[in-house]
Specification:
Order of helices and strands: HEEEEEHHH
Structural class: alpha+beta
Helix content: 40-55%
Oligomer: single chain
Number of domains: 1
Number of helices: 4
Radius of gyration: 16 Å
């Protein structure tokens, strides 16, 4: 196993505990993405740059944060998860519009938001 794959494994082990928070793995691309309904408000990837191989991209701010270890990433996540929790502005706009969405899709998004809020300790 090379260093990049080892770092990916360490990162994945750390983030699997946060799936209910809204994280999901894109295994083929070696990315971890945060956001409901397929949105990627935060994206973490393993780069080859040393000494900070972990890149966390913040979509709304078009900003990159770099970390040396998965532990450092996990330490930074609570604030970022709180800031970017819930539906994106576009998702909110779609739900408020007269677009004909299936009740299953809407129910799935509501359930996903409830799981995220519970995992993050947010009062509904």
């Amino acid at each position: 196993m090379n260093e990049r794959d080892d770092m990916w494994t360490q990162l994945s082990n750390a983030l699997r505990k946060r799936v209910d928070h809204g994280w999901r793995a894109d295994e083929p691309e070696q990315l971890w993405c945060y956001g409901l309904g397929g949105a990627s408000m935060l994206v973490i990837s393993v780069q080859t740059a040393k000494p900070l191989p972990l890149l966390l991209y913040v979509y709304e701010e078009d900003r990159e944060l770099r970390f040396a270890s998965p532990a450092e990433v996990v330490e930074a996540l609570p604030d970022l998860e709180q800031r970017y929790r819930g539906l994106t502005p576009l998702q909110q706009e779609i739900l408020a519009s007269d677009v004909d969405l299936t009740s299953e899709l809407v129910d799935e998004m509501v359930d996903e938001l409830a799981r995220q809020d519970e995992a993050l300790g947010v009062e509904s």
